[in-house]
From TrEMBL:
Listed pathway(s): Purine metabolism; urate degradation; (S)-allantoin from urate: step 1/3
Role: Catalyzes the oxidation of uric acid to 5-hydroxyisourate, which is further processed to form (S)-allantoin.
Name of the protein: Uricase
NCBIfam families: urate_oxi
A Pfam short name: Uricase
Membrane-spanning residues: none
Family: Belongs to the uricase family.
């Protein structure tokens, strides 16, 4: 029986970087976490303990910080991830591929009586912006997205017409709360993209479509959201979603002699429905290795 080394990669995970742009009295803050991983000629280090081709993970960490200074900040996270990936692959013969994953945490200026403060900020909820850049030789893929976009509509949602079995207790409804935490990833076609503009547009489209779609099922709303993004953005090949159905159950107040016309609900945190799907163009270019490095999506 032969034994050999299979697929492998290594790097530095969750390098936390905060960059302050002090170019004017109105400061700007960029708060990110970078995970850098490399693939290539690393068999000797695994099999023999020969470190000749083993670029230290500490070097990868330091490169993240140095690039933030040398390039006058981070800019769009997609551009920063591409910069890192190209550096590691192009500058090191032993590196054939690189995966650079970045999460960005939003900050807003604190509102004061005189307007938004110049250099004081408040962290923006649980929502994060994400990107994963994969470089394999000359090929590059960019998959961006967001996590934790929590939305709720208090009406305009129904659920009925589903199969009934002896185990079915859920009552049909023509008026319910629909709530979810949107996790979405979208794959770009190419890298000639205004990343910040595209991200802001996709986020706005997701929100508007959720709000304006009269929902007969969370699946239908998900598909409408993905369709709207692809119709507005020809530079995006596909959108993958993972969306829990955050159930809100009407509380029975009749024991207390009270009516409850869809006003008082119990917000259940578990168990929950989990809806996942991909909305894609039928003529989209092949995904290559793009989704291999973005686990957890159908």
């Amino acid at each position: 029986m032969g034994i050999r080394l299979g697929d492998n990669q290594y790097g530095k995970a969750e390098v936390r970087l905060v960059h302050i742009d002090r170019g004017t009295d109105v400061h700007r803050i960029k708060d990110i976490s970078v995970t850098s991983q490399l693939r290539g000629d690393f068999e000797a280090v695994h099999v023999e303990g020969d470190n000749a081709n083993c670029i230290p993970t500490d070097t990868q960490k330091n490169t993240v910080y140095a690039f933030a200074k040398e390039n006058n900040g981070v800019g769009a996270v997609e551009d920063f991830a591409l910069l890192l990936a190209r550096h590691f692959v192009d500058e090191h013969d032993c590196v054939r591929g690189a995966r650079q994953e970045i999460e960005e945490y939003g900050w807003d200026r604190i509102a004061t009586a005189d307007g938004p403060h110049d250099h004081s900020f408040v962290r923006r909820g649980g929502e994060t912006r994400t990107t994963v850049v994969t470089k394999d030789g000359d090929q590059e893929w960019v998959v961006s997205g967001l996590d934790g976009l929590t939305v709720l509509k208090s009406t305009g949602s129904e659920f009925h017409g589903y199969p009934k079995t002896k185990y079915t207790t859920l009552k049909e409804t023509t008026d319910r709360i629909l709530a979810t935490d949107v996790t979405a990833r979208w794959r770009y076609i190419g890298t000639d993209v205004d990343w910040d503009k595209a991200y802001a547009s996709v986020r706005a489209i997701l929100l508007e479509t959720f709000a304006t779609t009269h929902s007969l099922a969370l699946q239908q709303t998900l598909y409408a959201m993905g369709t709207a993004v692809l119709e507005a953005h020809p530079e995006i090949a596909e959108v993958k979603f993972s969306m829990p159905n955050n159930h809100h159950f009407l509380v029975d107040l009749s024991p207390f002699g009270l009516d409850n016309p869809n006003e008082v609900f119990f917000a259940a945190d578990r168990p929950y429905g989990k809806i996942e799907a991909t909305v894609e163009r039928d003529d989209a270019p092949d995904a290559g290795r793009a989704w291999e490095t973005v686990p957890g999506f159908v």
